Backbone:
């Protein structure tokens, strides 16, 4: 007998793997896995355009992997399911790469943008 349906649990795993498979989304996960980040910070550290980053952030949010908080005009993204980093690390090792090598490419600490985290002196909340 040939099965025509995929078990629902297996479908969910497949959908998750499809969501995180684009390289840019893995880069975003690695960056946010290192700490909360706003879109402008991701743009500065990864080198992609804001619209492209936002599009991929939306897919990761819809998959339930990211959550957000707003601070004025800035939206900060953080991992909703930090366990995803273990899966990325394991996938790197299974691919024959040292996981520290892929995380070194994404370094949020060196990126600077106009957000209050990077430029506290530009904080728009200060009242004169």
Residues:
């Amino acid at each position: 007998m040939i099965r025509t349906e995929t078990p629902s649990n297996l479908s969910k795993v497949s959908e998750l793997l499809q969501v995180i498979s684009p390289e840019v989304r893995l880069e975003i996960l690695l960056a946010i896995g290192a700490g909360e980040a706003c879109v402008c910070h991701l743009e500065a550290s990864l080198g992609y355009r804001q619209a492209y980053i936002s599009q991929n952030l939306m897919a990761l949010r819809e998959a339930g992997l990211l959550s957000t908080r707003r601070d004025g005009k800035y939206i900060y993204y953080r991992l909703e399911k930090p366990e995803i980093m273990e899966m990325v690390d394991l996938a790197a090792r299974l691919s024959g790469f040292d996981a520290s090598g892929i995380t070194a490419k994404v370094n949020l600490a060196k990126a600077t943008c106009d957000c209050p985290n990077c430029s506290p002196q530009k904080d728009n909340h200060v009242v004169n």
Notes: Residues 123-128 have pLDDT under 50 and may be disordered. The domain at 12-94+108-122 is CATH 1.10.10.10 (Arc Repressor Mutant, subunit A). The first strand starts at residue 37 and ends at 38.
